Recover the amino acids of this structure.
């Protein structure tokens, strides 16, 4: 599974993107379940968010969902944190 997270907005307005391939990872099944949950809990359109908050686009094998601070679900928050930390 290929998971890409794009974070935009924030005070500085910078964009950060990272991609994580789950193939071969010992936690691949857990990441896949987390990713499916995060995508299902997101919207197809970009939400309004809050001033200087982050917006996230989550793309998983061609399917895309959107979410924004401060209304991230637990799954979205965990997925975003993992992909931005460990992805390339």
């Amino acid at each position: 599974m290929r998971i890409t997270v794009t974070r935009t907005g924030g005070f500085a307005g910078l964009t950060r993107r990272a991609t994580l391939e789950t193939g071969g990872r010992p936690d691949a099944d857990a990441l896949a379940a987390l990713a499916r949950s995060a995508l299902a809990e997101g919207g197809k359109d970009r939400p309004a968010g809050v001033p200087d908050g982050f917006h996230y686009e989550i793309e998983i094998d061609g399917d895309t969902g959107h979410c924004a601070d401060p209304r991230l679900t637990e799954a979205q928050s965990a997925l975003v944190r993992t992909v931005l930390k460990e992805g390339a």
